[in-house]
Amino acid sequence: MTAAQVNAIEAGRSAHYDVTIRLAGIYKYFSGVPALRDVNVEFLPGEVHAILGENGAGKSTLMNIIAGTLQASGGEITFEDQRIQQMTPEVAASLGIAICFQHPAILEDLSVLENVCVALPPSVFSDRPAQDVVQDMLDAVGLQLPLRMRADRMTVAQKHLLEIGKALALKPKVLILDEPTASLDQEASDMLFGRIRNAVATGTSVIYITHRLAELRQIADRVTVLRDGRVRGAARVGDISDADLVGLIVGRTLEAAFPPKSKDVAEETSLSIAGLSGRGLRNISFDVPRGQIIGIAGVAGNGQTGLMRTLAGLEPAQGAITLRGRMLKQQGLLREAAFMPSDRHREGVASGLTVRENATFSALDKLAVNGIMSRAKEHEKVKSIFDELAVKAPSMEAPILSLSGGNQQKVVMSRALLSEPGLIIADEPTQGVDVGARFEIYRILRDVSDAGTPVIVNSSDAVELEGLCDKVVVMSRGHVVETLTGDEVTEERIVAAAVKAETHDVESGSKAVAAQSEGLRHFLQSDNSPIVPLALVTLLLGLYVNGQNDNFLSISNIYNIFLLATALGFIALGQTIALLMGGIDLSVGPLAGFLVVVASFFVNDGMSTPVVLVGLMLMFAGAFVTGAVNGLLIRYANFTPIAATLAMYIAIQGLSFLLRDNPDGYISSTVTDWINWQWGPFPVAFLVLVAVTLCGEYALRRTRLGWRLRAVGSNEESARRMGIRIDLTYISGYIACSLLTGLGAVMLMTQIGVGDPRQGVSYTLSSITAVVLGGTSLTGGRGTFIGTVLGAVLLTEILSAVTFLSLTQTYQYLFQGILIVVAALIYAAVRRRAAS
């Protein structure tokens, strides 16, 4: 550190408080089990304070408490001598606390630009266009990404860098970095350390969680060690040895970092790869002798991950792969290989399953007796491998996501070993794993290799490759540029071989995928891409039916189609909001019918204008209450969206029959004429629907409200970490859904002209069908209001076409079903092509 930086730090300290954050007596319990116990620690301005500890020691829990995403069960948090009564993400952000989570809070259904805009406060964009601010932020962390690119196409490293960029953009007083370099290459890590030093020089307090002792020596001033939720020691980094740190971390001494390598080169070749070529790979060849571990190295993004996925059978390729004399094709590799992916959240763990189920679902045939699953055998095997890997879990039946990241990684390895594979493909196997467990993983990989199972390891840590591997294959731009064996396998030789390759900059984890055109590819990826085929089908169907019956495209029939589509369109817009949040609203159909029944008591011929207005107000009041109750049941009574809205479906339908057991209460013809006012071939109400749709689409793409709505459906946990008020967003969304249904009910009222409790129910299924045809995802996060309205028009057109073609009603449902299947196939094919 330069003298100028030291002076800047001292100046920062003199201008600020002596202690930025003080934690006193912090406790945290999960279901009665302590995760943190009596933690006392201080974080000072202008320094990097490292937090070390095994997986499950409480590091991430402590950081989440500081960031406000978790509430402490006891203790006190003081920020700049001010006691914080309750730390929340909003409070933390207002105090200047920024956090980069171990698992980046990136919303995959939003674009890069939208991810940044929804995460950062409006003040960041107050004086410059958002695109310029975001582009500068990306440049600062070495990312070259199209701003319109959807985040699901980003690599893990790019997501980490984007998370870091968001945090640095806030110019925080406290910067929390949880395993920031876990997926970064050396170039990106060096860049990050430079940014950290710059932040510290301005007086920022940096809290740095890591498992890598080498990083500790590079960047940290002080260190605190946690074990089993307690502080086990704290010191200046220069005053404590690595051996003492490891002893504090694991509670015991470790004799050696790596197990002994294979001394003699076996004549037998366990695995042979010859001329392997595929996506991003060119003519890869190497052998794996029995008892040896092969390492894959290179600057991140030069084909290493592609090679690992190909060897695991997940990617097609040409060439010869021979395992113990047997040629294996892609299907054979899928059966024989156990794959440990680097991105455990996307590919490593099944989030809906328990710890036990995640450990065994690839090995069920090995745990069966006479074809029947043996629970006793399963528990015995899982317990044995968990003990060997020191997996820390509340129980085998605990949700997998309740484990720390490192323990999730151990479960992934447990599954690989339990499946008794023919070869093991380990992509960054120790990423996010603590010191003690890392040594256990090295030992187990060595034991497996010694037993004759080929082991191939991809790692961005050259020291790890040097200590673990007998042979290292260095890659650049999808080619093998050097193969190191025996004494040649050193950190210096590995790094030199990767760096000296002239093609190493083709796609680094710190750079990004090469910038691609902003035109057709991005449109095909967008939520609005279904609009084009949907509009084309609507037009072609109209032309075909008109060819069979000249009256189909008459002004009167076009008017009728649009008029009928308006009621469905408003209701489907509401359904779109529910689906965008990852929910569903089954009550929209009965609600529309119920609101018409309510109106039938007030909106009648002979009633005064005030009475008619009261009736309309009661309609929307009923819609508001229904939406609020749906939202409250889901968020606070723990109902699933289907259960809550199905209960409302039944209740509202019952209320409709209580008010009117038969059709009665005829709607005022004057009101009907006003609402159904015609302008050319278009009902004015349909033009209002179009205007509402366009405004909604603008809000969905360009406003914080729309981003938050989609964020909740994309990934609720990530949205919560960003400080989005999930409950309020969800309840507001369901209220908006019901209010739009109220607008649909107004149109339905003029179409049926009477309060009939049996009407409206069919709109539940029709609205879902229109939304699905419009391209909105049933899993949340992705959708378009424009596509929904086009879907509503198409469904109404089909109904009219069936009548004009003199077909039975059966064909209406048949055509709808065929359309949904065809649309799903087209949308899936288009998005696959856009991603390629």
TrEMBL record:
Keywords: ATP-binding, Cell membrane, Membrane, Nucleotide-binding, Plasmid, Repeat, Sugar transport, Transmembrane, Transmembrane helix, Transport. GO terms for cellular component: plasma membrane. Belongs to the ABC transporter superfamily. Its main location: membrane. InterPro entries: AAA+_ATPase, ABC_carbohydrate_import_ATPase, ABC_transp_permease, ABC_transporter-like_ATP-bd, ABC_transporter-like_CS, P-loop_NTPase. PROSITE patterns: ABC_TRANSPORTER_1 (PS00211), ABC_TRANSPORTER_2 (PS50893). It holds the Pfam family ABC_tran. The keyword Transmembrane applies. The keyword Membrane applies. This is ATP-binding cassette domain-containing protein. Residues 21-253, 260-502 form the ABC transporter domain. It is a multi-pass membrane protein. The chain crosses the membrane at residues 558-579, 586-603, 609-629, 636-659, 679-700, 728-754, 760-778, 785-807, 813-830. It is found in: Cell membrane. It comes from Rhizobium jaguaris. GO terms for molecular function: ATP binding; ATP hydrolysis activity; transmembrane transporter activity.
